[in-house]
Amino acid sequence: METLAALGQGFLVALQPTNPMWGFVGVTLGTFVGVLPGLGPALTIALLLPITYTVDATAAFILFVGIYYGAMYGGSTTSILLNTPGESATIVTALEGHRMALAGRAGPALATAAIGSFVAGTIGTLGLTFLAPTVVELALAFGPADYFSSMVLAFVTVSATLGSRPLRGLAALAFGIWLGLVGVDLQTGQARFTFGLLELLDGINVIVVCVGLFAVGETLWLAHRASLRRASIVPVRGSLWLSGEDWRRSWPAWLRGALIGFPIGALPAGGAEVPTFLSYWLERRLARRPQEFGRGAIEGVAGPEAANNASAAGVLVPMLTLGLPTSATAAIVLSAFQGYGINPGPLLMESQPQLVWGLIAGLYIANLLLLALNLPLVGLWVRVRAIPQPLLYAGILVFATVGTYGISQSPIDLVLLYAIGLLGFLMRLFDVPTAPVIIGTIPGPLAEQELRRALTIAKGDPTVLLTRPLSATLLALALTALLVPLLWRRLVRAGLRRG
Amino acid sequence: MPGWTRRATAAGALATLGLVATGLRSRTAQAAIDQLQLFVPAAPGGGWDQTARTMEAVLRVTGMVKGVQITNVPGAGGTVGLPQFVNQWKGRPNALMVGGMVMVGAVIANKAPVGLQATTPIARLTGEFEVIVVPAASPHQNLESLIAAFEANPGSVSWAGGSAGGTDHILVGMIAKAVGVDPEAAAYVAFAGGGAAQAAILGNQVTAGVSGWGEFAEQVKAGKMRALAISADKRQPGIDVPTLKEQGIDVELFNWRGVFAPPGLKPEQVKALVSLVETMAARDAWKAELAKRYWTGILLTGEPFAKFVAEEIVRIEGILASLGLA
Fold it and tell me: Which of B55, B184, B202, B319 to mutate: most A Cβ within 10 Å?
């Protein structure tokens, strides 16, 4: 009841005349930031930090969380329409979403992404409102060994993205892990695979890999195909809206995605990508018609999109309950708190109830505003596909280049962008799946670092992975997830032969 | 060709300044700095960036300059931005780069071709002392007990902090050396970003944690972490934590931050920048910002600061070498 009263107070704050306006500005800005490749919410909020000197705290935070949630919504749009995810958390969305768009079902794909984001964002925000103290306690129980084992579980999900040629997929995965290892090793301070370039010491930005592999790679691939035969544009077929069957297939995926995304987002080293991989893998395993996966299965859009947005709410759990900056965006929002003379820590909720609950109420409002903004936009976005492809993809190339340059103003990043883009093109040409590269780039180095942390703490004893109950459970889960489908197929085949 | 353009720009800037200097000789030194350009060799959000943005706010609010422009060139502890500042911003009389102890370490560890010696040191502005904490549930009630465990079996005490070779790691190395343990034998667990390290300490996953006081202060106040020692030179007002020195460990460490001008400035131009920074640091608005962010004002300007930087380079090189990083 106390929570409800506090939340009510929060709504009073968030609904003060100008605050919804700030929320609207935030979600609109966030949506566009999400749509543009390269630009992210962290950079945008950082650029807007000076606003904290003129605007009062609640308004500024409502603006910031609006941008944050908005970017999570916007990211899926280019994934679905153009197969060019602008950020790493929407790569999985492109796998099925773009297939749907190619089949003329861009409308339902965008709609399930928008509604799924709303549903999951709301579930996540509810979780943040009512479960935050419990969730954060569980999250703190995760030590390095447990993180390593959860990354092992994440690697199992690669099996869902390998396509018909597992060996090529595994090669792509290995390449991704290698890309992720470039830079100074955190534990020893030694440079790895940097070829003497200072610019590579911080590693290769995941956004550069992502935009290069998908936006640039896709553009080169389309240009190559267009030179072979006339590119055909599939017009939008049927309704823009979800059919009854779409609803039936979407809603369980939304719920499952939200349930995966929120807790993983709340883990201090969880991130937004791993839950999308897990959700995709799970939807594929649970689907009645798994053969549709890879050809545009709506569950494959609904689940990961929900997971992505719920994890965004999860990230706010350690931030608001303990003052922990567990993502780049959270770190910048926390530094904005300091601009107001508020030092975010475990007492934040007690010392600044107005602000915290106003912010949480702002999240509910942002979610609603985003749904209201994005559903009508579906009609507009699908028309993007009517733009002649040469013009459209030339525009994407320009945005990708400018966006990448904007991250660090580094010419090296541009060279990398096009080198990785060329590689993305070659991978498409030789039918090598690209998604495993990202699965390697993100959890790969994380798994490495966590394993070494676990071993340092345990004085080099590897059995720590099995003696910690959480870690052992996660490893057992990973093993089950890997083996059960294989055994099941054997059994079914054996049964068929007998029958 | 770019070399020529650069030289032309520099010459142009100098010519402009010459005009300003001759034409406006009667005006105060600050008048020459109308638009200040701040170069931040790190991404938005970090300590250097916050320093620059705080400077911007104070300079603008107090009307000391008309405008401040901030340029971020992130990468590799500042060693990506540093050569750019030294080469491309050469001779600009209204430019300052934010940097500090971390950059000294990064130049050494990364074997960067350009060091801070290539700049014109203007002022040391702030320092953040470090704090050593243990989880609330830790059996170690004081530093003595933690150090005893460390001396008995260095590998069994795990220290969580920032990246290898950074300020936190350097402090662990200095403590190890001071108590007679091989710094390389310390079980240092590096985390990227403060959030993950704090989570590991709060979750009782590591023996101890090391970080800037500001980062852990709220956790200490809330009783979630126990502060055993700070690395300041003396007790700090309002902070009930003894220093390392008080507890018999002769170690003092400030993660200092300051500003540097590009090379190729005339003495009067350097003077103008020094006086601008000195005036700013004396303002109440600046002092209020320092208190908000747990920064200690340790102003040191001009020649003495240049000498301090030279000494820091030698000192940190020695520590990094003992950690196996230089």
Answer: B202
Query: What is the model's pLDDT at position A47?
Result: 78
Q: Give the residue extent of every domain in chain B.
A: 2-127+255-322, 129-247
A473 belongs to a structural domain: no
For chain B, positions 273-292, list CB contacts with chain A under 8 A: 292
Task: Please say whether the beta carbons of B286 and B58 come within 8 A.
Answer: yes
Does B222 contact A347 at a Cβ distance shorter than 8 Å? yes
Nearest C-alpha in B relative to A146? B205
Considering only CB atoms, which chain A residues are within 8 Å of B61? 53
Interface of B with A in 139-158 (CB under 8 A): 155-156, 158
**Domain range enclosing A364:** 2-458
Which SS3 state, helix, strand or coil, does residue B100 take? strand
CB B131 within 8 A of CB B231: yes
CATH architecture of B129-247: 3-Layer(aba) Sandwich (3.40)
- Residues of chain A with Cβ-Cβ distance to B187 below 8 Å are 456-457, 459
- All residues at 6 or more sequence positions from A243 whose CB lies less than 8 Å from its CB, including other chains: A108
pLDDT band at A307 (very low <50, low <70, confident <90, very high): very high
Instruction: Please name the residues between 168 and 187 in chain A that touch chain B, using a CB distance below 8 Å.
Output: 184-187
Does any CB of chain A come closer than 8 Å to the CB of residue B67?
A: no
Helix pair angle (B194-202, A299-322), 10° resolution: 70
Confirm whether B2-127+255-322 and B129-247 share one CATH topology. Answer: yes
Instruction: Supply the pLDDT for residue A497.
Output: 67
Contacts of A53 in chain B (CB under 8 A): 57, 61
Report the distance separating Cα A445 and Cα A203, nearest Å. Answer: 11
Q: How many CB pairs under 8 A join A and B?
A: 151
Residues of B in contact with A198 (CB under 8 A): 75-76, 79-80, 83, 110, 112
Closest CA to B122 of B261, B293, B269: B261
CA-nearest residue to B166 within chain A is A189
Total tally of structural domains belonging to chain A = 1
A489 located within any domain = no
Q: What's domain B2-127+255-322's superfamily in CATH?
A: Bordetella uptake gene, domain 1 (3.40.190.150)
Only one residue has tokens 């945008």, namely A44
- Which candidate from B79, B189, B222 shows the least CB-CB separation from A198? B79
For A342-360, write each residue's pLDDT tens digit.
878 888 888 888 888 888 8
A465 in a structural domain: no
Say if CB A482 and CB A156 are below 8 A apart. Answer: yes
Q: CA B175, B198, B44 angle in degrees (round to 5)?
A: 100
ipTM score of the complex? 0.81
Residue-wise pLDDT tens digits, A414-472: 999 999 999 999 999 998 988 889 888 888 888 899 999 999 999 889 999 999 999 99
**pLDDT for residue A40 is more than 80:** no
CB A456 to CB B74 under 8 A?
no
Report how far Cα A496 is from the mean position of its chain's Cα atoms: 40
Helix axes A273-286, A144-156, angle to 10 degrees: 40
pLDDT at residue number B189: 93
Question: Please, which residues 207-226 of chain B have a Cβ atom closer than 8 Å to chain A?
Answer: 214, 217-219, 221-222, 224
Beta strands in chain B (DSSP E): 35-40, 67-72, 95-100, 120-135, 158-161, 187-190, 208-212, 225-230, 254-261, 296-301
CA distance B220 to B239: 10
Tell me if A477 is assigned to some domain: no
Provide the β-strand partners of residue B127: B256, B296
Q: Is A331 close to B155, i.e. CB distance below 8 A?
A: no
CB-CB under 8 Å, B156 with A50: no
Assess whether pLDDT exceeds 50 at residue A163: yes
Q: H/E element holding B105?
A: helix B101-109
